[in-house]
Structure formats: structure tokens, C-alpha cells
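Sample 1 of the test manifest.
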Amino acid sequence: MAEIAVGIDLGTSNTCVALMREGQVEVLPNAFGERTSASVVHFHEDGSVEVGNSAKAKVIHAPAQTVSSAKRLIGRYFFSEEVKKAQAIYAYEICEAPNHGVRIEVNGEEFSLPEISAMVLREMKQIAERHTGEKVTKAVITVPAYFNDNQRQATKDAGRIAGLEVLRILNEPTAAALAYGFGMGLNQRVAVYDLGGGTFDISVLEIGKDIFEVLATCGDTFLGGDDFDDRIIDLLADEFVGQYKINPRNDPFAFEKLKLAAENAKKQLSVDEEVRVTIDCVLNGPDGAPLGLERTITRAEFAVLVQDLIQRTFKVCDEALQQSDLTVRDLDGVIMVGGPTRLPVLREAVKHYFQQEPRVDVDPDEVVAMGAAIHAASLVGEAQDSMLLDVTPLDLRIGVAGGLAEPVIERNTPVPIEQTRTFTTFRDHQESVEIRVYQGDHRHAEKNTLLGQFEFSGYQKGLRSDVKIDVTFEIDADGIVNVTATDQATGQQASTQITLSSGLGEEEIQQMIQQDVAGRVATAGVQTPAPGDGPAALPAPPPPAPPKSVFAPAAERESLFGTGDQDLAGAAGDELELDAEGDTDLDLLDDEELIQLTEESTSGPLDIGAADDDGFFDTSGDDLSGPEIELTDEEIV
Amino acid sequence: MAQAAIDPHEIHALARIMDELDYYQLLNLKPGASTAEIRRAFHSSSRSFHPDANRTLEEPLREQCERISKRITEAYCVLRDPRRRKAYDARLESGSSLRIQLAEARQSHEEQRKAERRGATAQGRQFHGKAEAALKRGDLAAAIQNMQMAMTFEANNAGFKAMLAELRERQKAGR
Ligand SMILES: Nc1ncnc2c1ncn2[C@@H]1O[C@H](COP(=O)(O)OP(=O)(O)OP(=O)(O)O)[C@@H](O)[C@H]1O
Ligand SMILES: [Mg+2]
């Protein structure tokens, strides 16, 4: 029997599920006939859960019980900027979990972000089951191309909690390109400009007959249509303050009303030259009287409000083109994806930047899910093959001495890939080494995202020149990172493997699957087929990874991210201990020392590990510089 | 892609000998292959070995495919980048290894350039160093004199030549 595998575009604002059967891609509408559903989860008092556009409508009356934009928070640390921003905007409770994770608290219950997203995914699963009359257990789920490992892993966890086998985590622009070019026999270079609710991605691809090769991808996970709304909210709030001297931002109910009005106004401007915003009651004044608001916004005024946001996307486009060694003239097409694509001001700007008319022929809300469905079908043999050769969006780095992070795999390197670097200990007879893995484009470790860390002690201790530890960095086709440390010493095969994760341990995930957390989602009036109707229930989950947590206890993490005085700049030259444990403590080298170190070790042969700074590790290899003549202070003049 | 894209025996064999192949052999390329040929070879190897094409393979075949796929990507990343490729070709020639790690390949080229700029002889490096120091203090005349000395030991060092020329320009402009 044919396998059913759906494609799901799990968006910040909207989620869409599609299925390819017998050569046709179909977007599957929900029980209300809507082709996309709001990615909003509303919690009823009885503990049951509602998902979609009807849940979104509840936000006005029960903002604290209605969780939206979970995608902005998934895979983030509690102390991150994005979480702070969300706390200011959303009325639901965002709290801290162990290991700097994030939890949402509703009606006294705590949920992890993967659980919230699992509820949305479960809704999609049910929509698909209603359509096919069969159990649906396999899916391709899309993520912004610029998502880091933590976010990808957390999204994959969400899929598993929802009862899905995630065949592939696929990048949204790549999916869009697939929907656009699949089976067309094209030979083109295209850019996919994807501005969604909360993220911006640009990918440059070369499309061949059956091959989609991503040349470069860049993005900004802090930029989307919601930021356009914020500009209108500010405008309306200022207007209100001007009239009544009361700040509506301080009242969550009033704020939700402004937000809704702002988004509607923005959408209206996609159709009309100007829009009149009318809110009868933003909030009740001191005397109980309703205070309303009216304001007209023109397209021209809106264009000024969002100009800098649009320009920010083009900065990112510049980068992507540069990384792929192309100019706009080399592009045969530009595909626009995402809701804001409908804004004339944005289309005009995109057309101007790329010097060509952008393609908007596939529905910008559905194209990503359609691409995911095509790839899902191809993976289970239901469609002709489509080979997607994607890249990793961020530099993968390892922490070395002085608070620095040394790149091992550069961004825009194709995946899957594996790289091995050889390191030695910082001191003779060192008991253990600390391996920290980062993603990001900064030399300074703390400016990147920490993916995980682990202590490795399973090597033969000895003089630092004798210890050789291979650290293998692997990025799989989902863009998910795995790091392994192995002792090179003959016969000794000590190795530790970590799966860098969202912070949910394998045990927790198993528990959530067992408890069927996502199962609270019940679509109104929808019968799901009883288990046994379709092919066997869930496939056995992959064997649990060793449950070794890569996240240090909070106390240790303080020292990693903690206070400003651990900032490298502030500490140059000082002796500062990076590690709480004392064993692998290092003195910080000041910048000048570091530069010299690098230079000194750079003139050598090509042997493995030629030029790393000293570190928790130090790249092994001989002292590479030839005998240097000491420079005297005297000048020859 | 429900069926394996390639004969299991071939996967087995390639996984076994992979470590003895250089990147050209792995991708089935001639040493002088053009960038377009390299890219085509990458595409066609990926069709066979990419994890998406082998999702339903049994272990250990699936894992072997993935290993091959990762090596293919590595080969492609090195060969398609002229600077990396140059460093790799040099390594092949020296016979020291059949692989090069990406970060290394990038570095080693820069290293060569940097080393050249600093000088090939002990004396050249010494005078170049003094010139740099003089420059830091803003003593242009001393810098020029030191570079002239450096050039007497390494008359053909392009980096030295360029630096000296630039210093003279600056001196002229300063007057
Ligand atoms: N007609 C319209 N005109 C302008 N903006 C619109 C229109 N329709 C939707 N939007 C905006 O598009 C955004 C949502 O876009 P989309 O549904 O593509 O995002 P998403 O896929 O949920 O998010 P992401 O891809 O970032 O995860 C919202 O900010 C919404 O206000
Ligand atoms: Mg989207």
C-alpha cells in the first residue's frame, strides 16, 4: 500500500499542510474549509486545547490562555533577546525552565515550546487523516533556512511529540523552489525571497532538471511581517496617548486590540490606497467611559514607516548574492514567498532591487507546504525523485582559549558533511577537556549561540604533545549537528557522543509521546480514524540517544553567558577564569597575544591542526614556525 | 526514492576503499577537471549516495551511504573553491594525505601568503619586522630604510616590493 507522507509548513503565524498523490499536490483545508490555520493554541479551562483561526480569535478575550508565535521562541534560551521581546508583547506567561530553557505557563500548567508546536502539528495530522481516511504518521516539516541547530532539533522533537515520524526537516525557501520548479525541466538560477510573520530568509539556488542546489542562504530570524504591524501599533498607540494621555500599551487587552487593528490595517493596504482604523473602545477611561480611536493610514505613510525594515532584507540579500558569487543580473527568476509579499510597497521594492518582476504565481501562503509535500512524496517513492542539495546557514565553531570560537564548518557549506579536527590538551597531564560547540559568525564565543557542551576525559592522559583528540563535527541533511570526541591513542577507543538538543532530554520526549500531550487537540466535529484502521500505528522511535545532558547546571552556565564583566573586551589582559570547575581553567589571553599566537603558528606545513589558538584545546601538530630571529629594540637606521 | 538508488555491493565496496581515494578519484574526475565538471560530478554522485536517496536502506548500508555522501560533499567543497583546490593539489603532490579539512585548506593558503609577506629568509624577516615596528611608531623613513635592507636579501619577494612601493607613495604624499 502506498505510504502517506505529508508536507507541513509550520509557520510563525500560519500553518499549512499539503499532500501529493498521483502526481497532484493538494493543500488540505481544515474542518472549516480554510487552507491555512493560525499557529495559535488556546487552552480551555477544562484542559482541552483548540488550534487554528478560532483559537486566534480567542486572544481578545483570553490573551493569557492563548499562545501565538511559538516559533519565535522554540529552541531559544530564556535569556535571549527574542524571549525578552516576546515577554513584552504577549500576554501569556513565559517562564524559565531548568538549563535556561523556556516554558509557557497556562492555567497553572507548564508546557515546553516543542509541546506547543506539537499541538499545532497534531491539528495538521488530524486534518490530513480526515482527508485520507487513514492514519498519517510521516511528514516533512519546514523551518526557516536560517534556523540554528537548537531550533531545528526542537522542531523535530515537536514532530515526534505530535506522533509523526519526521522524514526531513526542510528549509522553507528550498521547499518553495521545489514547488516552483519541480518537474519543469528548468535550468535556472533563482532567488527565493521569503518574508514571513517572524522570519526572513533569502536563498539562491540553481535548479536543474531534477536537482535543486542551494548556492547560499542568509536570513534574519528577527524580521517579519509582525514587525510591520509593530510600526502601526506604535503609530496608533502614540495617537491614543496624544488624545487621552493614557498609554494603551500597559493594558494587555487594549494592546491586543491595537495589534489586531494594526494587522488588519496592514492587510487592507495590500488592497486599498488608504485605510481607516476605527476602534470603538480601546480601553475604559478613569470614569469608566469607553475611549475609542480613529486614524487614517495611507500607503505612502505606511511605506515610510516600514522602509528601514525592507532595506534590512536587502542587506541580507546582498550577502546571499555575494556568498554565491552572483549578482542580480545572473538571476533568471525571483520567487516571493510569505504573507507580506502581497504588500505593493514590498513588491515594488523587491522588483527594484532585483531589477526584475518577482514571481508570485504560486500562492505565497501555500507554496512552502506544497514543496514539502512534493519532497515527502518523493522520499516515500510516491513521486519522481527530486534531489535537494542544501547548505548549513551558520558557521559551526568550537570554543578555544581566550573566549574565542574557531570555525570548523563555514556557513553555506553543503550538507551532509563531516569534519574532523585534532586537538591536544592545554596542559600536561590534564584530566579532562571541555568541548563547547557554537553556531554563529563571531570570533568571540559568547556572541554565538551555544549548541551544547560536554566534558571529555576518556583519553590517555599524558604530555600535551602526546595527547591527540579527534573532534568530529557532523551536520546531517536536516542541518542538525552532532559532535563526537575520540582519543587517537592506539587501541584506546574512548569516545563520547552528544546529541545537541533543544533542552528536552530523550526521556522527557519519550514521556510526552507516551502521555500523548498533543492528544488534547480535538478538532471540532472531526472523527479521526481509530487506530487499526490504517497501517500500524507509530513506528518505533529511534533508539534513545545516551541521555547525557549537554546543558550544564544553571550555576555553571552563569559563568558562560553571565555578567557583562565576562565580556572579553572588558577583561583583556586580566586573569579571568572561564570555567567554574577549576580543572580546565585558563587565563584569558589579551587580544594582542592571540594575534601573535595565530601568526606564529601559521607558517607551517599543511598538517592537521595547523593553526589553532591555544585552548581548552590546542590544535596538535608541531611547532610550525621556523627558527625566528629575536628582534632587538634597536633600530637599524 | 523508496528503492535504493544504487547496488548494495557498490556501496559496500566504495565505503571500504573510500579512505584510499583522493577527491578526484572519489568523484570520478580527471585531475584537471573544470568547475562545471566538478559540479556535474557532485550532482551525479549525490543522486546515488545522498541520504534522501537511501532512506529505506538497511543498516549498515544506510550508514555507509551517509559516510560516502559526507565525503563527497567534502571533496566538492575543496575542489570547487580554487584556493582550497590549490592547497589540496599541493598536498596530493607532497603525498602527505588524501584529505584536507575545509578550515585548513582555507587557512593554509592564507598562511602561505602571510609567510611570504613576512619573508623567506631570516634576515628578510628581521628587517621586515623592524620596518613594521617603525611604521607603528609612525617613523616612515626608518620603515623605508628597513624595507630596502630586507630587499637586499629577498630581491624577488613580491610582498616586500609592494610594501616598499606603498611606503614610498606615502612618503611622497606626505610631503
Ligand atoms: N494580505 C496581506 N497583506 C500584508 N500582509 C499580510 C497579508 N496577509 C498576511 N500578511 C502578513 O504575513 C505575515 C504572515 O506571513 P506568513 O503566513 O507567510 O508567515 P508564517 O509562514 O506564518 O511565518 P514564518 O514563515 O516567518 O514562520 C503576517 O505578518 C501577516 O500579517
Ligand atoms: Mg512561512
